[in-house]
Design a protein that fits this description.
Blueprint (H helix, E strand, L loop, with lengths): L4 E5 L2 E4 L3 E6 L15 E7 L11 H7 L4 E2 L2 E6 L5 H20 L12 H21 L5
Antiparallel strand pairs: 1-2, 3-4, 4-6, 5-6
Helix pairs in contact: 1-2
GO molecular function: hydrolase activity
Pfam family, one: RF-1
Keywords: Hydrolase
């Protein structure tokens, strides 16, 4: 973490002021304090309208996280620990992890040729299948 912000990758630092947090009762463990402590944390970051996101990364992140974004806002909810502070740290770590994996462009598959063995096996399987179907027909006398 940088001074006053969270570093995702070099050149992409999110200021703490751009993050919104919401707290609520956690459905998880808690003992006697389960109904009094707001230990569940929802951390929200507006990917579409944030000035911290580099312009060249915005469409890449939007495409990678399209199923997690709601109106351009990425939300991470954590209720794993009993304490709110621990859940806040976990939420930030998960947000960083999500954004780091979204920033990495997937490598394109390089097209390769079929091997001669795989072509031969494919044609043999087709011949066997055709022979099987031919044997199902009524015999011609």
């Amino acid at each position: 973490m940088k001074e006053g912000g969270i570093e995702i990758i070099p050149g992409f630092v999110i200021a703490e002021t751009e993050l919104r947090e919401r707290f609520s009762h956690s459905p998880g463990p808690g003992g006697q304090g389960v109904n009094t402590a707001d230990s569940r944390v929802e951390l929200m970051f507006d990917v579409e309208n944030s000035g911290a996101v580099p312009d060249q990364l915005r469409p890449i992140i939007g495409l990678a996280l399209k199923n997690r974004l709601v109106n351009g806002v990425l939300t991470v909810a954590v209720h794993d620990q009993r304490s709110q502070l621990a859940n806040r740290k976990l939420a930030r770590a998960r947000l960083v992890g999500l954004l780091q994996t979204a920033c990495i462009q997937p490598r394109r598959r390089r097209a390769t040729r079929r091997t001669s063995g795989s072509q031969r096996r494919r044609l043999e399987a087709k011949k066997r299948r055709g022979e099987l179907k031919r044997n199902r027909q009524r015999p011609t006398w």
